[in-house]
Amino acid sequence: KSNFLAIVSHELRSPLTTVIGYADLLMKGIPEALPESVSRYIHRIRTSAWHQASLIEQVLSFSRLEGERAEINPERIEVGRFIRERTTLIAARAREKGFAFDLRVPDAPVWMKTDPSKLSQILLNLLSNALKFTEAGSVRLTFEHNPERVIFRVEDTGSGISPEHMDHIFEPFWQAEDPTTRSAGGTGLGLVIAQRLTRLLGGTLEIHSELGKGTTATVRLPVR
Ligand code: ADP
After folding, report:
1. By the 8 A CB rule, do 101 and 84 touch?
2. Beta partners for 76?
3. Which of 61, 113, 167, 180 is the most buried (most CB within 10 A)?
């Protein structure tokens, strides 16, 4: 099943690369400048293509984790700088929705040794959910550290998760059966991927949520 998913995802990805590539060229005015009304449509095509690409990425990552082909490639990173670099798109999407992305980074540098691409996938999955299920208020990312661990928190003031749904949120392909989730889209893989990647890096992921108030995801990872 995992192999099948990997192959199918790959075949789905190639044509999308072409769609995105040509949409990018048109947006840049190549081969010629386009009227604003047309650019707006192309912008939508591009956004949808990116969205689909990220869904395929999720399915691919999941199949890789299922197949236990995941490798860890640790690097030394400065956490604050790393997070600032990796969350520029999240900040932009929050602005588009009309609220703030509140990133709190300590003044002094914090170093850790971990797999950077896995860490960013964990945080981006959690942040994407926070953005998706929040209509007003804020999405906040903070971190603290002690000699053993770095602790990341993604907090939102969104819809929250009802207690009876909490038992299911880590099930692959599970999504709450409500209109917000449906309209928000997704694969139901974001959390299970974040959880498995966190475990792979020797850490834990916990979700606390209050319906109507918001959700907090806490990721604890070893400093090295
Ligand atoms: P996806 O977001 O692709 O649907 P996830 O595995 O990331 O899949 O999340 C599973 C479900 O858990 C979501 O569909 C949603 O119902 C719920 N959920 C996850 N994060 C949040 C959040 N921050 N606020 C509210 N609901 C959430």
Report:
1. no
2. 113
3. 61
Query: Once rounded to an integer, what is the mean pLDDT over residues 3-23?
Result: 87
Taking the model in full, what pTM does it have? 0.86
Q: Write down the residue that tokens 């790959």 correspond to.
A: 10
Mean pLDDT of the chain: 91
Q: What is the pLDDT of residue 180?
A: 58
Ligand 1 centre distance from Cα of residue 77 (Å)? 28
Nearest by Cα to 193 from 22, 26, 5, 4:
5
Which element (helix H / strand E) includes 14?
Answer: helix 2-27
- d(CA 47, ligand 1 centre) in Å: 21
- Which residues does residue 113 pair with via DSSP β-bridges, in sequence order? 76
Please work out whether the CB of residue 214 comes within 6 Å of at least one atom of ligand 1. no
Query: What is the phi/psi pair of residue 192, to 5°?
Result: -65, -35
DSSP label at residue 218: E
Q: Ligand 1 within 6 A of 128 CB?
A: no
Residue 90 CA to ligand 1 center (angstroms) comes to: 16
Q: Return the ligand 1 atom nearest residue 189 CA.
A: 6
Amino acid (one-letter) located at 181? T
Rama region for 81: left / alpha / beta (φ>0; ψ in -120 to 50; rest): alpha
* Nearest protein Cα to ligand 1, atom 11: 175
